[in-house]
Design goal:
The chain has about 325 residues and is mainly α. It has 14 helices and 4 strands. The longest helix has about 35 residues. The two termini are about 30 Å apart.
Length: about 325
């Protein structure tokens, strides 16, 4: 399955590299892709075309793959650790915290470019970490972290920060459209800088998650069974939730809030290959990236006027009905 997904990703990336307002032939795209191995193959290609294909479209493709993979990977961890099939990367209020931080940056006028990088992702990342800290403070009981209280704390923090965002929008009407578009998620105007911004967190957080795949399987059995099998449940839960939350925070910080990816993709992969995380996590990482890449391509090419839809709207339109189908399918299966 992994090789099939990798092949689909390469084909989708190549196909989407030729889609955009500027008509670029796929022969030119192939020449530019292969030019690092043989510079003569890209000789004669206009510099503007080269910049658009490499520094705009290919960078956006790479970012879509990184964001989608991050959200789907985090969703699989959340569902396994919290023992909640409806958990996704936003269960603990991380995305709402990122949206709150970005909203503050927008109304404060510091969302522009400083020292070559936008301050908006930095503010969003800080807001996500703040939300995660509040959830952990509220979710601890008697010095221990309990799954139920952690989820409830996430709902409380998310609801409170959503109210704060609504207050910010009502007090600053000039920034409402910018805040709303960011909250709905978008990869418009992103560059290789944003790819480099998310990659360290994806590598670090993903490395921790993949390192503890066996412990994640044991945690999925429940706390008592995991303890009997030698797992330090509290420590392992903290490490895995922290790693997945950092990955989510980085993704949301560069793309805004993109929903349903972390919810639908793990379910789909579990139905296809089973719940064992050694096989599940790599497939989830790849399929999540592929889903966001396809959704972003639809978002930027669907309207004939050249305007872009928020990619979060597209993932919701695609993911919502599909997840309803999954629920109905599982319900019929249980009735049998």
């Amino acid at each position: 399955m992994w090789l099939g997904l990798l092949l689909l990703i390469v084909l989708a990336a190549f196909f989407t590299s030729g889609i955009g307002p500027l008509d670029v032939s796929y022969k030119t795209v192939l020449q530019l892709w292969l030019s690092p191995f043989h510079p003569a193959w890209a000789a004669g290609i206009d510099d503007t075309v080269r910049y658009i294909v490499i520094h705009m479209r290919l960078a956006r493709i790479a970012l879509a793959l990184a964001v989608g993979g991050s959200l789907a990977l985090a969703g699989a961890v959340y569902q396994g650790v919290l023992l909640n099939p409806l958990a996704d990367p936003f269960t603990l209020g991380v995305s709402t915290g990122a949206a709150f931080g970005a909203s503050l940056a927008i109304i404060a006028g510091v969302g522009g470019i400083h020292l070559g990088i936008s301050a908006l992702p930095v503010a969003a990342f800080a807001g996500a970490l703040m939300a995660l800290y509040l959830v952990y403070v509220l979710g601890r009981m008697d010095g221990r972290i309990h799954v139920t209280t952690l989820v409830l704390a996430g709902i409380i923090v998310s609801t409170f920060l959503s109210a704060c965002i609504s207050l910010i929008k009502s007090l600053n009407e000039d920034s409402v459209s910018t805040i709303v578009f960011w909250i709905m998620g978008s990869l418009s105007g992103k560059s290789w800088t944003h790819v480099l911004l998310i990659l360290p967190y994806l590598v670090l957080g993903g490395g921790v998650i993949f390192w503890y795949m066996r412990e994640l399987d044991l945690l999925s059995l429940g706390d008592i069974q995991a303890q009997h099998l030698g797992v330090d449940v509290q420590r392992m839960r903290f490490l895995l939730l922290l790693a997945s939350s950092l990955v989510t925070a980085a993704a949301v910080a560069v793309s805004g809030v993109i929903g349903f990816v972390g919810l639908v993709v793990p379910h789909l992969v579990r139905l296809a290959i089973g719940p064992q995380h050694r096989r599940l996590l790599p497939a989830v990482l790849l399929l999540g990236g592929l889903l966001v890449l396809i959704s972003d391509t639809i978002a930027r090419s669907l309207l004939s006027t050249g305007e872009e839809l928020p990619v979060g709207v597209v993932t919701a339109i695609l993911g919502g009905p599909f997840f309803c189908y999954l629920l109905l399918h599982r319900k019929k299966y249980l009735q049998l």
